[in-house]
Amino acid sequence: MKSFISIARGETFDTFFSGANVELTEALGEAVWNGSARRMTAEEVAEKIADCENYVTLWGSPALDSRILDKAPRLKLLTHLGGTVVPFVSEEMWERGIKVISANDYFAESVAEGTLAYILCALRDIPKYSYELKNERKWKTASSYNAGLMGRTVGLVSYGTIARKLVRILSAFKVKIMVYDIKPLPSEDILRYGLIQSSLEDIFSECDIISLHTPLIDATYHLIGSDLLGRIKDGALFVNTSRGAVVDQVALERELSRGRFNAVLDVYEKEPPEADSLLFALPNVMMIPHMAGPTVDLRSYLTHELMLEAAGYIDRGEALTHEITREMASTMSKK
Prior knowledge:
Elements: E1 3-5, H1 11-16, H2 19-27, E2 31-33, H3 42-49, E3 54-57, H4 66-69, E4 77-80, H5 91-95, E5 99-102, H6 104-123, H7 126-136, E6 153-157, H8 161-170, E7 176-180, H9 187-193, E8 196-197, H10 200-206, E9 209-212, H11 226-231, E10 237-240, H12 249-256, E11 262-265, E12 285-287, H13 296-316, H14 326-329
Parallel strand pairs: 1-2, 1-3, 3-4, 4-5, 6-7, 6-9, 7-8, 9-10, 10-11, 11-12
Helix pairs in contact: 6-8
């Protein structure tokens, strides 16, 4: 296998391509590296990719379109070390029959884990009590309050890979799970987890915890607006680990400023949020800088696994475990 690795050298490179992964990549066959500390243009990739069979990408890599494809007649595989592949694929690539694998499944597992962490952290008010004890030497009082997940009603908006993994984790907490999705839910999941396919209106009106897992495509931009946000129950928890623009952030800020419910936000319409965003001043909002997943320590592992998978496919004709088909890509976030 001959691979072209388009990823720029720097702090992110090392988290994916540890010394051991560099050695692995070169042991699997010839490797052509970006080598510079900046992202390459499509024209620069085209100059180097020549007879490579595997194009390895990460955030900011050029899309695999005709500018590169015309210079890469032996290319068989796009190996993306991120989640969504939408910014990196093209119609020309699909038409040429080039396969795609990505770390989407690894990312989903990590985001599901992160979502659970956010929910538990918010319900138990962990940041507040930790801050008060460490910074104010303040011990709990008889009126101190926290809450748990056991037995709650959880609403999931969209039932993609992340939500499916989250459902498996949530089942240990004996929660009632309502799910909104444009497609019928898998019958086996309904039977196993007791899922209830529901409307957006019912989820926002009835659930104690609402968690968004919707990809950002044209049809989902501002899917969650004033009407739905206004239906959220007093005391409920709203969690967004999908994409910021799925929610009308102005409407969200307006509803949160009323103090009726709490929120954990991992994503925003603009990242980072504007310095004067109302979110920073609201005590009922926990803000995380887009870190639900994958955790940094996972990057080296997924790189190792995907490079082995790429070699198995190209050199030995083995089946792809983490393939992203054209149909799957059409439902992924644009960025």
